[in-house]
From TrEMBL:
UniProtKB keywords: Metal-binding, Oxidoreductase, Zinc
Taxonomy, superkingdom: Bacteria
Chain segments annotated as coiled-coil in the UniProt record: none
Gene3D superfamilies tied to this protein: Medium-chain alcohol dehydrogenases, catalytic domain, NAD(P)-binding Rossmann-like Domain
Glucose dehydrogenase C-terminal domain boundaries: 148-360
InterPro entries noted in UniProt: ADH-like_N, ADH_Zn_CS, Glu_dehyd_C, GroES-like_sf, NAD(P)-bd_dom_sf
Listed cofactors: Zn(2+)
Domain Alcohol dehydrogenase-like N-terminal: 33-143
Record protein name field: Glucose 1-dehydrogenase
Amino acid sequence: MKAIAVRPGQPNSVHLAEVPTPSMASIPDGRGVRVRMLRVGIDGTDKEINEGLYGAPPPGEEILVIGHEGFGRVEEVGSEVSDLSPDDYVVPMVRRPGGSLYDRIGFPDLSTDETYYERGINFLHGYLAEEVVDDASYLVKVPPSLKEVGVLVEPTTVAEKGWRQAVEIQRRLRLWRPQRTAVLGAGTIGLLATLIFRLRGFDVTTFARTKKPYLNTDLAEAVGARYYSTQEISLLEAANREGPFDMILEATGYSPLAFEAMEAVGKNGIIILSSVTGGDRKVEVPADRINLEFVLGNKVAVGIVSAGRDDFEAAVRDLAHAEAAYPGWLKRLLTHAVQGLENYPLLFNDLTEEKEAIKVYCDIAEF
Ligand code: BGC
Ligand code: ZN
């Protein structure tokens, strides 16, 4: 079958590959499910993998099939699968268990292993392929009403995991009612985080560099968020002027903002860090003041990587809620479509900044 693959470590190695069709026998205990991939999104992680900065092939292989934002339709189920049937739409999860305690109790996204397994990223083939076979436990059902936007489920899980972790952590306060929240970044993740915070009724300020007017700012405002360009007002200036934030989700990829957030978060507040920043940037920070205010204000910062099954299920529910609350909004995020795996060069072309893409994706087969 056809697939889009890279040679990890080798810059610009993305190519159309002919790879073996996955076999149902590769999944034990009759739990296998064959999925025809319909639509797969790409993001900054795929770009970094193609730049040779990130990613690893399966042991003993030279290429890695990329793509971790999958959406497909079930073709065939194993004898022991009762929760899925042919024609169901599904999104496959990204992480697979390694060996740590957390992996073994079903939370691979909380793995403490140095080596982690992520489909399309690390040691496991991804979804930019005609077909995928997986264990039913890692496939999350999507209602047909969401099929056009099913490709947004995986990116939404970032915000869902952030929110779920924040709720767990903030139980320490007995009663936590975030009111003022900030989302840093107005790319796919920033906009989806803006959405899910608005669906929960919070006051949201979304910060990004670009000045209005701009599609991303329209989208933030369309769900009732306030949009600030950091070229006009910084996060810290906004906090000083309008009050500190109860919760801040960082999704820009610009690590210095994590430290600015530490000064902009209020007492008992929480910062959720979600950007994978592979660089080596250094900044000077007011260390004494940040530390003191963290102590005196009982503040928390938490990092989140990948997502668990609960987050995928929550993402599906929230996307359905979004379609009802803001009809047509999700579709506006799907800015750049590429038709067919063979047109893969366009995928990476669309991801470049000049294109101002929100979600770039490949349509692999008819819905
Ligand atoms: C993916 C996550 C993954 C992370 C780190 C992100 O782009 O969406 O699932 O855990 O990269 O590899
Ligand atoms: Zn991603």
